[in-house]
Design a protein that fits this description.
Blueprint (H helix, E strand, L loop, with lengths): L5 H5 L10 H14 L7 H13 L13 E5 L6 H13 L7 E5 H4 L4 H6 L4 E5 L16 E4 L2 E6 L2 H6 L1 H14 L8
Amino acid sequence: MENLSIHHLAMFMDSEIFILPEEKNMIIEKESDSLPYPEPKQEISLVEEDSENDSVNLEYEGGFGKGVLVVYQGKSLDPALHELLFKILNAVGCSLKDIALASSDSMEMISLSNVMAMNPNKIILFGNFRHDIMMLKKSPYEIINHEGVEYLFADDLKILFENIILKKALWTELQVLFNITKKQK
């Protein structure tokens, strides 16, 4: 760690580092002497990082025909939750060919820009997970329109499975999201 430059230390330190003016020259001399390779230009490394992130695509099931992205919390769905999710999707006129079904684990591996590059119309998120997209969440069961994409945040499918009141709240918002009106007899 003693041989790392300030640039390298900043990659894993979460607080700012301050250099006193009188120490600046001493650090620059030590840094140039200790590096076994020339320091890459900052612009080049940023471009490389961006191209690295762009090459990672979201892993999902389905055909994504209607541009609906559905993300559930966890690595996989157990059969009962899978059945619940597809009953919900069938009720709004969607099947696997219409959606992209992704786990939160695969979602956490990609950037928000990669999600937006998929060009979804609607994004339905079940549960809580670490991703920039979660910063848009204000409260569960509220549709948010951001930059032309409609978002619906809901509780984890495990919670929905056991709670009829939350299922009703989800259904109410799904009717709005998918423009479903009750048929009059």
